[in-house]
Specification:
- 29% of the residues lie in helices and 22% in strands.
- The chain has 156 residues and is α+β, with helices and mostly antiparallel strands.
- A hairpin with a 4-residue loop joins strand 4 and strand 5.
Length: 156
């Protein structure tokens, strides 16, 4: 009976499938070349009715030519913060076949100054990206009017 139970357990393992089905040809994808480009893409892909109400964390997936593969909402939090889970971020980047990513989150307060938690998270994700060969090119803190770029300020 014990042998039968262990044989049945072998068949109770979930099968995992990964697929990649882009909707656009590579030549049709937009390219980002500056933090201003990145800000504009994020800003126009953000729910502006919640921009100054709750914090959200998003990532932009890029191919090797800095063409935008997509934008993914990692988390939606409250007034004072949101959770940016590295597993979710890099699982998405891997499944999306990204060569690099750009991080972004909004500050509902309108304050563009990065917190110590923002700095630590950026460093943690940059280090994790190096292990996976997925570069973290920038981290933007955005508001309804402007943005702060970690890369532009030499913080990456």
């Amino acid at each position: 009976m014990e042998k039968l139970s262990s044989q049945i357990a072998l068949f109770q393992v979930a099968e995992i499938t990964v697929s990649y089905q882009p909707k656009f040809k590579a030549s049709e994808r937009p390219t980002v070349s500056s933090s201003k480009d990145v800000y504009n893409f994020f800003f126009h892909n953000w729910d502006n009715t919640r921009f100054e109400m709750i914090e959200q964390f998003k990532i932009m997936l890029l191919n090797r030519a800095n063409k935008v593969l997509g934008i993914f909402t990692v988390s939606t939090g409250g007034v004072a913060g949101t959770v940016a889970d590295p597993k979710v971020i890099f699982a998405t980047a891997l499944k999306g076949n990204a060569s690099s990513i750009i991080l972004a989150h909004n500050h509902p307060s309108g304050n563009l100054k990065p917190s110590e938690a923002d700095r630590q998270l950026t460093n943690k994700l940059t280090q994790a990206g190096k292990l996976l060969d997925i570069s973290v090119l920038d981290h933007l803190i955005i508001t309804a009017e402007e943005y702060f770029s970690f890369a532009d300020e030499g913080l990456l």
